[in-house]
Amino acid sequence: MNGSTIMIFTGKGGVGKTSLISAHALTSARMGDRTLLVSADMAHNLGDIFEVETGGRLTRIEENLDILELDPLRIMQEEFPQVNRAVLEMLSGKKSVPDAAGRFMVPGFEDLFSLLKIKKIYEEGTYRRIFVDCAPSGETLSLLRLPEMLSWYIEKFFPVGKAMTRILRPVSGTLFKVQLPDGGAMDEFSDLFKELNALQGILRDPAVTGVRIVCIPEKMVVEETKRTYMYLNLYGYHVGRVFINRVIGEQQGNAFMARWREIQREYIDELERVFSQIPITKIRWHETEICGRQALMELCAELPGPDELFAAADGDAGETYEAEGDGYRLRVALPGLAADGSGASAGEDDGGPEVARFGRDLDIRAGNCLRRIPLPDVLRQMDIKEVRREKDALTVLFLPAGAQ
Question: Which of 29, 260, 309, 388 lies at a C-alpha separation of 20 to 30 Å from 133?
């Protein structure tokens, strides 16, 4: 750990994430701490809110504050060309790929280069705080699950692929009319696996990385916010604070706004129940668009003090294992999950989380999200004996085969 911290902001589109994260970054910088504000959303608007041209390059806003709108293709070409080339060689089976491939990105790999760039910035230790403005919730979840997903595929297929390549490469051209990738590409893949594991360690360490969810008190947004919170916990990410934006205050003599305030109150109450263990900050509705540093400074005044604002996330996101009798119980944090008190398989009756073995791994599906958890060696020879829904968690009991 180098003393730097990462704060990731997510939420449904149009709820004010960029304004709030920009206010955080401005607060951090004016405390005298070197601060970087990064946009990982392809629809960048950091330049718009600070009223500057960025050109996709690191841009100094003021003393101690830089912004960077990530360009995955540029990052791949300038900083990680070997990663893309290794993947292309593995997919094409060729020892080398044409120079033109240097401008071709493997579809779906955009987020990987953005994450590798954030990891690189963190490890350089230049900035005390790194704020990451993410795309709307669904895309953020796809971004944050990418390191584990790619690691799983490399871990499962790379050892076999490496061995088979070594055996078949001498005869592949003659017998099969294909050219298998050489050892260099395989070594690059091995290095990528190490990078992804290190990236997971950084993003899931609550002392380093925390997530902030931004929402507004409207039905669709509240429902998406609850799902996002559960999915983030499923993937092992720690949520440190929830911001309820655009809260309408007292409106004297305005019946229309008074009615909207009543509606908002219902959803605010629901959010406070759901996030009873998470700090909540309410941000008032601003009559004018928040754009420019003066407007951001007014927003900064509504934020909690620095010690509270930048505190590390608490909680127990992700999975834990505890010995129980002759076996072990796996606990996966899933806040918002109703307890049933039974030993029935979750998801049997009400469409709740589904649990199943997948080879030597465990699949947990909650809503539209699937997480495949590699099981420790000691559990791979055991059977699932019980799945329970507990308060804010799913538990799975593993016992030796034949045990009751």
Answer: 260
Identity of the residue numbered 266: E
> Can you read off the two tokens belonging to residue 275?
């996030």
Whole-number Å distance between alpha carbons of 192 and 80: 10
For the chain (404 residues), the mean pLDDT of every run of 10, in chain order, is 89 94 97 96 88 88 95 87 70 56 66 90 96 89 84 66 41 40 59 84 93 97 94 92 94 84 96 93 91 92 96 81 94 78 43 85 90 90 92 92 75
Return d(Cα 140, Cα 37) in angstroms, integer.
Answer: 16
Structure-token match 């109450």, residue found: 269
Q: What's the predicted TM-score (pTM) here?
A: 0.85
Instruction: Report the CATH number that the domain containing residue 117 is assigned in CATH.
Output: 3.40.50.300
- End of a domain among 309, 335, 353? 309
- Dist. CA 329–CA 387, nearest whole Å: 9
- 3-class secondary-structure state, position 385: strand
